[in-house]
Amino acid sequence: MIQTANDIFVLHTAHTTYAFRKLPTGQLEHLYYGRKIHVCEPLDENAVAPLIEKNTFQPGNSCVYDREHDAYTLEDLCLEMSAYGKGDIREPFVELIYEDGSFSSDFVYESSVRFEGREARDAEDALPASYDEKNQVEHLCVTLKDNNSALKLELHYYIYEDCDVITRSAKVINTEEDKIRLTKAQAACIDFLHGEFDVISFYGRHAMERNMQRTSVGHGAFVIGSRRGTSSHQYNPMLILAEKETTEDAGTCYGMSFVYSGGFKAEVEKDQFGQTRMQMGLQEEQFSYPLKKGEEFVIPEVILTCSNQGLEKLSQNLQRCIRKNLCRGKYKEKVRPVLINSWEACYFDFTGEDIYHLAEQAKDLGIDMVVLDDGWFGSRNDDNSGLGDWKVNEEKLQGSLGDLISRINALGVKFGLWFEPEMVNEDSDLYREHPDWAIQIPGRKPVKGRNQLLLDFSRKEVVDAVYEQMCQVLDQGNIEYVKWDMNRSMAEVYSMTAEEQGSVQYDYMLGLYDFLERIISHYPDLLIEGCSGGGGRFDAGMLYYTPQIWCSDNTDAVDRVRIQYGTSFGYPVSAVGSHVSAVPNHQTGRKTSLHTRGVCAMAGTFGYELDPAKMTDEERREIREQIVEYKKYAQLVQNGLYYRLSNPFAEEIGAWEFVSEDGKEVLVNVVMLEIHGNMTVNYVKMKGLCAGQFYKDSNTGKIYPAEALMEVGIPMPLEFGEYKAYQIYLEMVE
Questions:
Q1: d(CA 265, CA 226)
Q2: 685 vs 687: CA distance, rounded Å
Q3: Which of 389, 539, 553, 556 is catalytic?
Q4: Sign of CA dihedral 197, 200, 201, 204
Q5: Which string of b and e fits 456-482 if b means at least 16 CB within 10 Å?
Q6: Do residues 641 and 670 lie in contact, with contact meaning Cβ atoms separated by under 8 Å?
Q7: With contact defined as beta carbons under 8 Å apart, do 81 and 190 qualify?
Q8: Which of 184, 323, 560, 725 yields a CA-CA distance of 20 to 30 A from 258?
Q9: How far apart are CA 450 and CA 432, in angstroms?
Q10: Is the preceding peptide bond at 572 cis, omega within 30 degrees of 0?
Q11: Cα–Cα dist 39/699, whole Å
C-alpha cells in the first residue's frame, strides 16, 4: 500500500514500512525502513513527526545547502538519494561529469505519480526486473530535476506486499544537455540514523562460492563488488545489514539483492555522526556512460526486504519473491526433470552411440533427461578450438543431431544440450572470419581464459549472428533443456565500435539479456540452466531468464553443504542446480556414500553427473530408489519454506529443513560433517511446525508433539563412518 500526500511518501508491505519526504531544500529525506507502523491520516508532518530528524548542531566545517536554507547540511541528513557537490560527502548515489568538466549535481523533487500493476517484461525494458502476474503490485515513480542542468532522475519503487519486498531502480534522463557522462549509478540507497550493525556478505572463489562472512560495521566503508564483468564467484551481489544481536530467529535485518549479472558494487558506510548508509548498484570502475540529448540510462533493479524476525524470515522473503515475482516460464514453480549430464561420463570423448547408450541407462534408472555437454559442435575436442562454430559435428555423432534426439525420445527420455554462446576460440571459423567480433585491444596480445575470448555482445550484429546459429541447432530436434555456460571473466575490455569504452560492459549485458529474451520468447517451453564456471553468475538477473543456475562446479557433497548453505540466504532452492557426482569426487578426491550425495543434491534441482556403466547393481538399485524418493518430495523441496537448522561452518552437522506452507509436511536433511571418538549426541531442532499439533515420522512410525520437535529436537544416531546422512519425513497427524 502507498500513502502519499503533502510531499510525504509511505510505502507499506504486509509487515514493513518505508517512508521518506521532500525537504524544504527539495531533497528527499529518508525517514524510516523497518517493522510496520501505523501512520495516521491525514498524511502530514504531524503524522510522521516521530520519524523526522531533529537537527540541533552543525559542525563548523560542514557546508550548508544554500543561504536560503542555512539550517540544512546534507551530510548529516538521511537521504533517499545523494549526489556529489552540495555538501553530502558520503558515497553518492550517482556521479556525473558535465560538458564543462564539472562534477556537482543537485537533484531536487519535481513530481510523483502512482501506478497499479507490473507485467513481466514491459516493452521498453532492456533489463530484467520483478513483476506481478496478478497485477496487484503498486508502483511509485518520483521524478527529480537537476538544478544545475536539464537532467532528470526517476526513482522507481514497486511494492510486493505479500513478500515484504520493495524493489528500487532508477533512470537518468538527459533532456537537453549536449553530452554528460554517468560515472556512478546505484539503484538503492538506505540511510540509517543510528544503530550498531553487522554486515553479512558472501565471498568465495571458483568451486567454493558464497561463504558467509559477518563483519562488524565500524566507521569508514565496507565494500564488495566485481570488476570481472560478471557478478562473479568471488562476491555475490547480495548483502545483509543486521543489528548486532540478530540471529536466525530474532532481530532486525535488511537485505539487498541486485537484479543484474555484470559488475556491481555494494557498500556500507558509517559516518562521523554514527549514521550508516547501505547502497547497491553498478561497479563504477571502468564505467563512464555517455548520455547525449534525448538519451536515458536505466539503472538495474535492487530487491529490498526487511525482517524483524531474524535472518530466516529475510531469506524466505527473498526466496519467495525470486521464485514468484522474478523467475518466469513453464518451469517457474514446476518440478524440473531429473537429468544426467554427459560431462563426467564422457568429457569430450564420445560418439552419438555413447550418448544413446547413456540415455538407455538413464531410462533404466528412472532418469527423465540426458544432457549432451561440451564437444558436440565444430572442431571441439578440447578447450582450444571450436567455440563460436555452433554447427553439429555429424562426423563425431555418426549422424544428425535430429536423428539422435528422435532415438533418445523414443526411449521416453528427454534431451538437452550444452552451449557457451558468449565465447569464441581463435581456432574457429567464426574468429577467422570476424576477429573484430572478439573483445580485445587492437595491436596487443589478448588476455585469454580457458583458451578462449569473449564475443562482443555490446554489438547487435554479433548477437544476431550467434542467435541465428543457436536457433539453427535448436530447430533440429526436440531439445527441451539448454545449459548456458560462460567460462571466463572480462579483461582488457574494448569494443571496436564503441564510442566510449566505459559503456561496453553495461552494453554487453544489454546484448546478453536481449539474446536470452529472444531465445525464451521463441522457445517458451525450453528450460535454460545458467552456468558460469559453475556459480560465477549466480544472481537474480540471470534467474529472470534461467529459473535454475548450476550452483558450483564443485559437486563434492560435503563442500556443497556449505556452498548451498550460503546460497540459501538470498536464493530459493528451486534455483540451485545440484547433482550427484562420481566418487572419488573430481574436485576434491573425497569419497562419500551415494546416499549422502543424494541427500545433498536434493537441496536443489536434482540430477546426476557420473557414468552409469561403471555402477554396480546395488548402486543402480539405490539410484532408482533415490529418484523415486526425490520425486515424492520434489514439490515440498521446490516450493516449501526453507529453514537452516545449523551452521555447517561452525557445527559438526549440516542440517536444513523444508516445511509446506500449511505446515502439514516436513522434510529434514542432516549430514554428519565430523566424526570423533566418544561422540556426543547431536540434536536437530526443527522449525516452522504448527504448535499444538502432532507429527508422525514416516520411517519409524513415532509420533511427536510439535513443541518437542522444536524445543528438544531429534537425536542423530551415533554411527561409525564419515559423512553419514539422514532424511526425516514427517506428516501432521490429522
A1: 7
A2: 7
A3: 539
A4: positive
A5: bbbbeebbebbbebbeebbebbebbbb
A6: no
A7: no
A8: 560
A9: 19
A10: no
A11: 51
619 catalytic? Reply is: yes
Give dist(CA 710, CA 525) in Å, integer.
41
C-alpha cell at 71: 539550517
Q: What is the DSSP string of 518-557?
A: HHHHHSTT-EEEE-BTTBTT-SHHHHTT-SEEE--S---H
CB distance 325 to 337 below 8 Å: no
Which domains are assigned to the chain? 2-50+61-325 (2.70.98.60), 339-550 (3.20.20.70), 653-732 (2.60.40.1180)
Residue 55 phi/psi, 5-degree rounding, is -90, 110
**Catalytic site residue from 360, 619, 629, 731:** 619
Measured at the CA of 627, the angle between CA 624 and CA 633, to 5 degrees, comes to 145
CA distance 243 to 197: 4
Alpha-carbon distance of 605 to 290, in angstroms, equals 42
The grid cell for 213 is 562472512
C-alpha to C-alpha distance for 555 and 436, rounded to whole angstroms: 37
The pTM of the whole model exceeds 0.90: yes
Q: ∠ CA 21-22-28 to the nearest 5 degrees? A: 80
Q: Which residues contact 461 (CB under 8 A, 6 or more apart)?
A: none
Active-site annotation holds for 249: no
Q: What is the CA radius of gyration of the chain?
A: 27
Is the peptide bond preceding residue 237 cis, with omega within 30 degrees of 0? no
3-state per-residue secondary structure call for 155-171: EEEEEEHHHCEEEEEEE
With a CB cutoff of 8 Å and minimum separation 6, the contacts of 720 are 675
| Residue whose cell numbers read 563483519 | 215
What mean pLDDT, rounded, does the chain reach?
95
Nearest Cα neighbor of 143 from 107, 167, 92 is 107
**Nearby residues of 678 by Cβ (< 8 Å), 6 or more positions away:** none
pLDDT per position as a tens digit, 479-508:
999 999 999 999 999 999 999 999 999 999
pLDDT, tens digit, 9 for 90 and up, residues 671-717: 999 999 999 999 999 999 999 999 999 999 999 999 999 999 999 99
C-alpha 574/C-alpha 332 separation (Å) is 9
Our measurement of the distance from residue 477's CA atom to the centroid of its chain's CA atoms, rounded to an integer in Å, reads 31
Q: Which amino acid is at 9?
A: F
Consecutive H or E run containing 319: helix 310-325
Q: Which residues, listed in sequence order, are joined to residue 299 by a DSSP beta bridge?
A: 170
Q: What count of Cα atoms within 13 Å lies in the side-chain half-sphere of residue 619?
A: 18
What's the pLDDT score for residue 123? 45
**Residues for the chain: how many in total?**
734
Rounded to whole angstroms, how far apart are CA atoms 473 and 469? 7
